[in-house]
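Practice problem: Serine aminopeptidase S33 domain-containing protein
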Amino acid sequence: MASNVFVYNSIESLVPKSSNFSLPSLPIAQQVPVSVSSPCRRRRISALVTSMAQSTQNPVVLQNRVIISNKHGEKLVGLLHDSGSKEIVVLCHGFQSSKDYTAMSNLANALEKEEITAFRFDFAGNGESEGTFAYGNYGREADDLRSALISSNCFSDYQPTCEWDAGGNVVLLYASKFHDIRNVVNVSGRYDLMRGIEERLGKDFLERIKKEGFIDVKNQAGEVKYRATEEALMDRLNTDMHKACQQIDQDCSVLTIHGSADEIIPVEDALEFAKIIPNHKLHIIEGADHGYSSHQTELASVVLEFIKSRLQLHDKSSTS
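Answer key — structure tokens:
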């Protein structure tokens, strides 16, 4: 049976620090190392638990720093925003980003205000997690998400409720592969994975990577930002989003959000998802760029509305 988990995957590029989205920040508290013995038989989790001071707006909130292992033995670092709910929303960052990406922390705080627990984590090779960053790499990130979802069932009696993905592809691929998720939020996902490669790797990328085995992507100062390996690039080129989306279960509800002014991934990609995903809702945010720089409030509002509506529907079906 599919878990009632929301998985939210976020955008490829970082949002500028200046944003019109404002939520009360959680008080800083001392981090205390704690050993967590989970009732889940599949995994025992080591965690750093941060005990948060009481707030008038969020009276009982624990923000937990959690360390889990992926299938490759790499440690993945995440933050559990514990609001006491049984459901949990798993937040996944996009390309060259992290769990501390503006939209993810904003949404986690917004979910806390609605008393919905959220978990945001760094994929391997990103943020605080172990591993080496790789361009493409969708298959391994889907496996990382699998590790995070299995572990989220161990934090307490949580039921994973939704996946959010900024970049979209990882959560959609996950839903097509594992079939244990009922709700997915795809934010600015790319439908045609052949696009966008030349902009990052150059027009002769295939010839160069076949010859050298990798391409180093540098900034204007000539410093290496990241290395694109042949293996990771082939993973991207061999990923068929059309076929994957057709394999998503009918009872998995997918919300795609896209900005009409997205300068990195065209809004047409969102329209393609709407054509092929069985149980799909499309929301275009007018005027929003790829990072939703001036539309953080609207982005969070759309996601929260979807999550709450799906939770209400689930509650009704459980009591009927």
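Discussion: The chain is about 30% helix and 25% strand. Students who identified this feature from the tokens alone can consider the problem solved.
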